[in-house]
Specification:
Elements: E1 2-7, H1 22-46, E2 50-54, H2 65-76, E3 83-86, H3 98-101, E4 108-110, E5 117-121, E6 125-129, E7 153-159, H4 166-172, H5 180-186, E8 190-194, E9 200-202, E10 211-213, E11 229-235, E12 242-247, E13 253-259, H6 266-276, E14 278-288, H7 299-306, E15 310-317, H8 331-346, H9 351-370
Parallel strand pairs: 1-2, 2-3, 3-4, 6-7, 7-8, 8-10, 13-14, 14-15
Antiparallel strand pairs: 1-11, 5-6, 9-10, 11-12
Helix pairs in contact: 1-2, 8-9
Bound molecules: manganese (II) ion.
Length: about 375
C-alpha cells in the first residue's frame, strides 16, 4: 500500500480580486502563504510516500521571486520526500517560467514536457505527468495514452478539464480536456487532477472512483465558497481508493441569500445581514425578492453599515420593487405596465429578452411613479 498527499490550484500570488480593500488583500496574500506552510506541515507530520501538486501552484502573470523562493524553501523542509509537480494553465510552462529558470531542490520533480513522461519510484509506483503549455488548450493527452498493465501502481498527474461535465468545462475553461471514457481506457490506478476549484471525483457521475480534483486549498475568488481541501490518499493495487479530505484554509468564503419580499425599509435588510455576521468570513450577500417600492436600496450605505460584521462583505442586488397595478394612480404607468406584461408574455422562452423587459419595467415605473430612477441618483 502507498500513501500520498494530493493538492492542486494553490494559486500563490493571486490578486484576490473581489476584495476591495488593498490592506485586506495583502492580509489574504499572507494567509495564503500560511495555507501553503500548513500543507507542508501536514506532509512533514504524515510522512507520506510522496506529494503531488497538480498545477496552478502560483500565478505566472503575477508571481514574485520572493514567492518562488518561499515555495522552494518550504519544499526543502520535507527533503527527501519526493514531490511531483506539473504546470497548470495559471503557471503555464512557458519561456521564463520559474519551473525552468529556478534552481529546484533535487527531491522536487517538475514535469517539463507537454506530453506524458513517467518516473518510477522504487519499482513500485510510476507517476505519469504532463505539464500545461501554450499548446495545451484543446489537446486530449489521455485519449491515446495507456499505462502499462503490470503489478506497479500507476498514477496520472496533470491539470485538465473533465469535459464530460460540460458546465464545469465551460466555467473553468478547456485545458487538456478528457472524458470519462478516456479515464476508463487509459488504465491508471489513480488520476491526480487539478483545474476545477472544488472537490470532485472522476469519472464524472460514476460510481467507481478513479481519481479526484482536490479543489483549491484556500479560496481566492468570492464564489469559492464552502470547505476547501487537500487530499490524503491510500492506494493498493486493485482495491478501492481511500481518501481523506483535510481542510487547511485560513478563511471561509460564504454566499448568503436574503429574501426581501415585502420589506419596506432598508434596515430590515441590515438586520438580516447582521444575523449572518462573522468577523472572520469573506461574505457575499445576495438580495432577492420583491420589496415594497418605497424601500430605498443604497448598496454602498448598506455595505458600509455591514462591513464591520465580516472580514469583507459584498452585497449584490437582485430584487425588483413590487409595483402593483391596483396601487398605480398614474394612467400612463398603468398602460406602460400592461404593455410590458404583454411583451413579456410574447417574449417567453427567451430569457435575455425577459431580463431586458424586466429591467425596463423597473426603470420605467420608477420614473413614472417616483419621479426618479433608483440606482441612477446623482
Ligand atoms: Mn486553478
Amino acid at each position: 500500500m502507498i500513501r500520498f498527499i494530493h493538492t492542486a490550484d494553490i494559486h500563490l500570488d493571486t490578486r484576490f480580486t473581489g476584495i476591495r480593500d488593498e490592506s485586506k488583500r495583502k492580509q489574504r496574500r499572507a494567509e495564503h502563504r500560511h495555507c501553503f506552510t500548513r500543507i507542508i506541515d501536514i506532509a512533514e507530520r504524515v510522512q507520506p510516500d510522496f506529494l503531488l501538486v497538480a498545477g496552478d501552484l502560483f500565478e505566472q502573470t503575477h508571481f514574485s521571486p520572493d514567492t518562488i523562493n518561499f515555495i522552494v524553501r518550504q519544499l526543502e523542509r520535507v527533503y527527501p520526500l519526493p514531490v511531483f509537480v506539473v504546470a497548470g494553465n495559471h503557471d503555464l510552462l512557458v519561456a521564463g517560467s520559474p519551473y525552468l529558470t529556478w534552481e529546484w531542490p533535487s527531491h522536487v520533480h517538475i514535469f517539463k514536457d507537454g506530453q506524458f513522461q513517467s518516473i518510477a519510484l522504487k519499482d513500485e509506483v510510476v507517476i505519469h505527468g504532463a505539464s500545461a503549455t501554450q499548446q495545451s488548450g484543446f489537446l486530449n493527452l489521455l485519449r491515446n495514452y495507456n499505462v502499462p498493465q503490470d503489478e506497479r501502481i500507476h498514477i496520472v498527474l496533470f491539470h485538465g478539464s473533465e469535459a464530460t461535465d460540460r458546465r464545469a468545462a465551460e466555467q473553468w475553461g478547456s485545458w487538456l480536456p478528457f472524458t470519462s471514457e478516456d479515464i476508463l481506457s487509459s488504465g491508471a490506478d489513480y488520476y491526480a487532477l487539478g483545474h476545477y476549484h472544488s472537490f470532485r471525483s472522476i469519472p464524472f457521475q460514476q460510481k467507481e472512483v478513479k481519481g479526484y480534483y482536490p479543489g483549491c486549498p484556500e479560496p481566492t475568488k468570492l464564489d469559492e465558497t464552502g470547505p476547501k481541501y487537500i487530499l490524503k490518499l491510500k492506494l493498493e493495487k486493485g482495491r478501492p481508493i481511500q481518501v481523506e479530505k483535510i481542510q487547511v484554509q485560513s478563511r471561509q468564503y460564504r454566499e448568503e441569500i436574503i429574501d426581501c419580499d415585502g420589506f419596506k425599509d432598508r434596515n430590515q435588510i441590515l438586520e438580516r445581514i447582521r444575523e449572518f455576521g462573522n468577523k472572520d468570513d469573506v461574505a457575499k450577500i445576495i438580495l432577492e425578492g420583491y420589496p415594497d417600492p418605497a424601500l430605498e436600496l443604497d448598496l454602498e450605505t448598506l455595505r458600509e453599515s455591514a462591513k464591520d460584521w465580516f472580514f469583507t462583505v459584498e452585497i449584490e442586488n437582485r430584487t425588483r420593487p413590487d409595483y402593483r397595478p391596483d396601487q398605480m394612480d398614474n394612467l400612463l404607468a398603468l398602460r406602460f405596465h400592461e404593455q410590458l406584461q404583454e411583451a413579456k408574455a410574447q417574449g417567453k422562452g427567451n430569457s435575455r429578452d425577459i431580463q431586458v423587459l424586466e429591467e425596463a419595467e423597473v426603470l420605467g415605473l420608477d420614473a413614472l411613479l417616483r419621479g426618479h430612477i433608483r440606482g441612477y441618483e446623482i
